[in-house]
Amino acid sequence: MLQDYSLAHNYVEGVVRTEITTEQETGLGASRKVYFNETDYNNETIVDWREGEGFTMRLHIDDKPLAPFTEASFGYHLTELNASSTRVTMTMSYQMPWGWFGEKLNHWVIEAEMQKAIPKVAAGFKHFYETGKPATDADRQRLLDAVVIAD
Question: What is the 3-state secondary structure of 79-143?
């Protein structure tokens, strides 16, 4: 199911629609827009694809890096634990501009926002891929205890 690149709106909080923007619908080079309302979106393009293991997406808006970053990516990595369990590791990587000020902005604002957002993505992901039903805010909140945060 993870190969279906059009499903993010079913588990990412705030995403209302997902649109594939390339002829290739999955795998290396596939790209999508994730919409937060009818007009505001981010682009996500697969830059690393490992069949059965996961992928990494470059986050951007059209041809520009996702603000405020100079580059940003998000990765999903799957590890089979046993016949009925899989660990999903989600990794947000980014570079801040502006030198010292960018480092402080990251420390004061960005890190805290990521620490709130990524567990919700993971909880929504767990709900959706285990039930096949879109995650609600209540589903994400209920499953937050199943999410482990590591640096």
Answer: EEEECCEEEEEEEEEEECCCHHHHHHHHHHHHHHHHHHHHHHHHHHHHHHHHHCCCCCHHHHHHH
pLDDT in tens, 13-53: 999 999 999 999 999 999 999 999 999 999 999 999 998 89
- Contact assessment for residue 125 and residue 147, using Cβ atoms and an 8 Å cutoff: no
The answer to whether the predicted template modeling score (pTM) of the entire model surpasses 0.85 is yes
Give the whole-angstrom CA distance, residue 86 versus residue 82.
Answer: 7
Residue 141 structure tokens: 């909140």
How is residue 42 written in tokens?
Answer: 């981010």
Nearest to 42 by CA among 15, 22, 24, 69: 15
Which domains are delineated in the chain?
8-142 (3.30.530.20)
Alpha carbons 62 and 58: distance in angstroms, whole number: 11
Which tokens go with 108? Answer: 């004061």
